[in-house]
Amino acid sequence: MPKRESNVVGREFGNGLRAAIAKTGLTQRQLAEELDWDESKLSDLVNGKGGVTAHEVEVLLAYCRLSLAERRHLMALFLEAGEKGFILFPEDGVPDQLRTLINHEKESSAIVAWSMNLVSGLLQTHDYAYAVAQAGPHEKEDVPKVVAARMARAEILRPGRTFTFYVHQQALLLPVGGEEVWREQLAHLLRMSVRQYINFHVIPRSIGAHPGVSGDFRVMKFPKYPPLVFLDTLNCGLFFDDKETVALYEDRVKRLAAVALDREQSRAVIDDILEGLQ
């Protein structure tokens, strides 16, 4: 199989393969020598670029002594790596799409997020996230794990990346978790919005219909990979990196930017809501 450009499915396969190799206790160089492969061949595979046959992958996975279920999962990803997009259905516990999203967020250099009804996950406080998770499709016993994973995501909110958040005014007016939790969430947004690498913009209710009415989305950009669009649903995550889909959402971002309030105006909206809660 010829080498290909790295895409979202290929990198998901590569992440799974990297974890499988780690379990063997061998370095990639040592494993390549065991298989009589060039090290660059294994490196390309781990980075989602293919360049090997399905039979070679089967031999590699067998050498890693994975369970039958794990081998089938990774083989399915490998065989789908040439397709557009990636649909990920969770099995249990913390949603798999959340784990995959975290991996991509860590690798990104810039993230643009649009949220219509809730504060974006990266900006949620613990109690706000807990209230959201409780109201969501998660089993009660899984809520703490989901919240912990979401809180861990916020660790990437540091200099070195740029973050742009667009949120509809109605999301700020929703009293998630009760007044105390709501108030602390708004105060948290004010604290985060002064950081130079975070751009926070409100889409005002006064404009009526707006470019984000089709729903929430996230666009991630990477130093070495094409941009990626992520859409979250009740029971699955959708990842797209084909040029046509990315272009559609990048256009949405431009349209949102054209009607959004600036940083100071957005902060003033939050201040007004907090004053109303006095």
TrEMBL record:
GO molecular function: DNA binding
SMART domains reported in the protein's UniProt record: HTH_XRE (SM00530)
One Pfam family this sequence matches: DUF5753
Cross-referenced SUPFAM superfamilies: lambda repressor-like DNA-binding domains (SSF47413)
Domain HTH cro/C1-type positions: 17-71
PROSITE patterns tied to this protein: HTH_CROC1
This protein's name: Helix-turn-helix domain-containing protein
Species lineage: Bacteria, Bacillati, Actinomycetota, Actinomycetes, Pseudonocardiales
